[in-house]
Amino acid sequence: MSVDQTTVAKIASLARIKMSEDELARMAPELSQILDWVEQLGEVDTSQVEPMTAVIPNTLRLRDDVIDADPLTGGDKRDAVLANAPAAEHGFFGVPKVIE
Amino acid sequence: MTELTELGVKAIRDGVAAGDFTAREVAEAHNAAVAAAGELNAFIVTTPDHALAAAERVDADRAAGKQLGAMAGVPIGMKDLFATKGVQTTAASHILEGFTPEYESTVSQNLWNAGAGMLGKLNLDQFAMGSSNETSYFGNVISPWRHKDGGNADLAPGGSSGGSSAVVAARIAPAATGTDTGGSIRQPAAFTGICGIKPTYGRCSRWGVVAFASSLDQAGPMARSVEDCAVMLGAMAGFDPKDSTSLDLPVPEWEANLSADLRGKKVGIPKEYRMEGTDPEILESWERGKEWLRDAGAEVVDISLPHTKYALPAYYIIAPAEASSNLARYDGVRYGLRDLPDGAGLQDMYAATRAEGFGDEVKRRILIGTYVLSAGFYDAYYNQAQRVRTLIARDFEKAWAQCDVILAPTTPTAAFALGDKMDDPLAMYLNDVFAVPASLAGLPAMSVPAMLNGDGLPLGLQLIGKAFDEQGVLNAGLAIQQRAGFDAKPEKWW
């Protein structure tokens, strides 16, 4: 299925990636080519098949409900959590003003 | 004195243990090789002090009579997809440039616990998305191999683990970590004449590995022999409660149980892998592989994996879908790059940051993933791909009734020149046509070098095994290694 530039602009906005008109114009045929190619999956009769959910059968484990059980990821890690933030202020992640 | 950079993992470990040389000498020799190889652009950062400190601990432990680990004294390269505490971890992206983890990935920690040291963080395709190492923000890795006719065209080392394959082939590191989502260990190993194994999904913890497509991502070793891969995989693998899909199984004694005696084993040859347009020399290497395995005592049988041709298109829905979700975390708030245009609000900041921080291929995949997961298309694309994935896994299940291990080429061609496929994403994707089916089914798979082609470039053979049967894969790989006698190496030009 081919996608036009307007559709690519819509997807880019959903994916929160800013794109110039030039980029959109370049990306549209590339994405169309890829989507045309994956279209062949429609040939496969999958009416009797469940979608794969796990390659290796595995039940999800639960851990004991203990606070700070893992010393590495447990509490009192504020500075470590903020260490790589581009704008950490007063012990918080700083962001531009959200509410007018 | 032995040229220490010519030694593999096992030879270094055993030589250090025997006192033939010190771990420090080994680290120094490799640090020097790293420093002299800038032209390959294989490292994003080098960490000679890490390698030296690890070596000194091993030498001290040996002097104190302590038991040494499985990787004691072995300096390795670490793909820059593994978080390493205090050492920049970028996934070869601009968006993570400068990111310095406060924690260590489980796999790298396991390796340090086993006595290994780190030479540096290896370049890769950005977020492991690529097959030629041309999508890195930090520039292309150049393969140490060249055409034998003396042509100077720079060749691709494969991808995404291109820094890993380049340094191991160039005798800069005896081994390196790789990760494989759809061939990213096996394809670069094949392109550079080395070995690499992707274990069963869940063997190696994904904790601390920058996520690409979580249902497919698996770490594994890249080294110059099957034995070295067995040693290093043993050190990397193991149950990790911090990874919800980690296999809660003991790690088998792969190294101790290596055996090239394949009597009683059946090797399957999937007819669907004989695709139109496959290089005749690749087909020749496949024929030789069959002969070698027969010679090792195995019976060669024809099998069918009927959904093979659908594996790649299914992969290019599933992997981008997972990537679009995983990469949503790069928002310019918690870590990494922030681009905040004047007067921009939060949403504008997200969009500007991601525009600035992601490369073209990463954007392309995020957009594909966003599209196939969007309302109205989810069933037709994503669910259909996951259904096809079930059929691909079922193909392998049926094959195991007829054989113990599968032999196939690793790649459809030998290494191509840098730049050859960059303007055609689909042509690039087709590189992984033989590698992706095993990834979709979560199976262990390995590439071992088979021969040089007419241009003097390496060709690899792939072995695919049953889930949890890395041993069967390694054993068949060993049988090929012993008979192929592959000892070619790139001539040093860097």
Low-confidence stretches of chain B: none
Q: Any idea what the CATH architecture of the domain at 5-42 in chain A is?
A: Orthogonal Bundle
Helix and strand pattern of chain A: HHHEE
What oligomeric arrangement do these chains adopt? heterodimer
Largest sheet of chain A: 2 strands, antiparallel
Let me know the CATH homologous superfamily of the domain at 4-260 in chain B: Amidase signature (AS) domain
Class from secondary-structure proportions of chain A: mainly alpha
CATH topology of the domain at 5-42 in chain A: Histone, subunit A
Q: Give the beta-strand count of chain B.
A: 11
* Beta-strand content bin of chain B: 5-15%
The average pLDDT score of chain A comes to 92
| Whole-number mean pLDDT of chain B | 96
Q: Do you know the CATH architecture of the domain at 4-260 in chain B?
A: Alpha-Beta Complex
Largest interface: A-B, 53 and 72 residues
Given the C-alpha coordinates, what overall shape of chain B results?
Answer: globular
Find the CATH topology of the domain at 4-260 in chain B.
Answer: Amidase signature (AS) enzymes
Tally of contiguous helical segments of chain A:
3
Radius of gyration of chain B: 21 Å
Helix fraction bin of chain A: 25-40%
Write the layout of secondary structure elements.
The complex is a heterodimer of chains A (100) and B (494).
Chain A: H1 5-14, H2 21-38, H3 78-82, E1 88-89, E2 92-93
Antiparallel strand pairs in A: 1-2
Helix pairs in contact in A: 1-2
Chain B: H1 9-18, H2 23-35, E1 43-46, H3 48-63, E2 75-79, H4 106-113, E3 117-122, H5 162-169, E4 175-180, H6 186-192, E5 195-198, E6 218-223, H7 226-236, E7 266-270, H8 280-295, E8 299-303, H9 308-326, H10 346-357, H11 360-373, H12 378-399, E9 405-409, H13 425-429, H14 436-440, E10 445-452, E11 458-465, H15 470-484
Parallel strand pairs in B: 2-3, 7-8, 7-9
Antiparallel strand pairs in B: 1-3, 4-6, 5-6, 5-10, 9-11, 10-11
Helix pairs in contact in B: 2-3, 5-6, 7-15, 8-15, 9-11, 9-12
